Amino acid sequence: MSLKNDAVLRSILRQQLMFGAFGFFALVSFSQMLYGVSFFIGVLMMTVNGWWLAKRFEKTTGLSVESSQRSLYAGAAVRFLALIAGLVLAHLIGLHLLLVAVGMFVAQAVVFVSALFMFGKKSV
């Protein structure tokens, strides 16, 4: 991957997975295996979604503005459908959808907090 902030992307994806693993092990330690797996799947879905967005963004380098917008909008539609398909699959295999959603929320919160810290460091 040749993104300008490749190290930042790897750091955020790693942090998301660490929070997912922490939540998984915390829930499993309370004998809640189904909840732990559901939570981790939610985190994993959003981590893959973020990586997929970064790859799509990388492919827009060098394209015109209109082509870049089309590519990003098409990618957003595909990622949205993939998330819906992931939620349907999670439901079909019997995962707890509320915990999947909590995992998705935690993964996005990690991105938000990481961005706040990065912007805070740059302004100092």
Which features would summarize this protein structure in a list?
mainly alpha, single chain, flat, 124 residues
Can you give me a brief rundown of this structure?
This protein is mainly alpha-helical and 124 residues long.
Structure, explained:
By secondary structure, the chain is an all-alpha fold. The protein has one domain (6-123). It is 85% helix and 0% strand. It is built from four helices and no strands. The chain has helices spanning 6-29, 33-59, 65-92, 97-123.
Structural category is mainly alpha
Q: How many alpha or pi helices?
A: 4
Form type: flat
**What is the H/E string?**
HHHH
Helix content: over 70%
Low-pLDDT parts are none
Question: What's the arrangement of secondary structure elements?
Answer:
Blueprint: H1 6-29, H2 33-59, H3 65-92, H4 97-123
Helix pairs in contact: 1-2, 1-4, 2-3, 2-4
